[in-house]
Amino acid sequence: MSPSDCLFCRIARGEIPADLVHEGERLIAFRDISPQAPFHVLVIPREHIQSLGDAEVGHGALLGEALLLAAEIAAREGVAEEGYRTVVNTGKDGGQTVHHLHVHILGGRSLGWPPG
Ligand code: 5GP
Ligand code: ZN
To answer: Is the CB of 35 under 6 A from ligand 1?
Structure first.
C-alpha cells in the first residue's frame, strides 16, 4: 500500500477527518472509530511505515517518541491513574488491519489478559 492510498496517511494529511487529540510534527493521535474500550486512541507516525516489522534502526527515536506520547495522552485524558494498555498489532496473526504502524492506547475499563 502506497502512502497515497493509505488510510492513516490520508488522516495524517487531513484528507479524511478524525477526532484528533494530538497533532505534532512527526506524530499524530486520534480516537479510534470503533473503540474497544471507553478510551481508545491511536498514535501514528506521519511517516508511512507499514508495520513494526518494517521499522528500521533509524526509526528508533520515532518509536520511542510514540510510546512517550501515548503515556502523555493517557495521563492528560485521565486514564493513567487506573492504568491502560498500549498495543502494536503486527501482521495477520497479530490482528493488524491497517498497514500503517500505529500504537493503540486502551483504557477506561479493566482489560483481560491474555488477549483473545
Ligand atoms: P489494527 O487492527 O490494524 O491494529 O487497528 C486499526 C484500527 O484502526 C482499528 O481499531 C480500527 O477501528 C481503526 N480504524 C479503521 N479505520 C478508521 C478510520 O477511518 N478512522 C479511525 N479514527 N479509526 C479507524
Ligand atoms: Zn500510511
So the answer is: no
pLDDT in tens, 53-86: 999 999 999 999 999 999 999 999 999 999 999 9
For residue 103, the model assigns a pLDDT of 99
Candidate of 1, 8, 10, 32 to mutate for ligand 1, largest count of ligand atoms within 8 Å of Cβ? 32
Q: What is the C-alpha to C-alpha distance for residues 74 and 105, in angstroms, rounded to an integer?
A: 7
Q: Please confirm, yes or no, whether 99 is among the known catalytic residues.
A: no
What would the 3-class secondary structure string for 42-69 be?
Answer: EEEECCCCCCHHHCCHHHHHHHHHHHHH
Q: Which of 48, 100, 102, 104 is catalytic?
A: 102
The residue among 40, 42, 20 whose CA lies nearest residue 98 is: 42
CA 49 / ligand 2 centre spacing (Å): 6
Q: Is 10 helix (H, G, I), strand (E, B) or coil?
A: helix
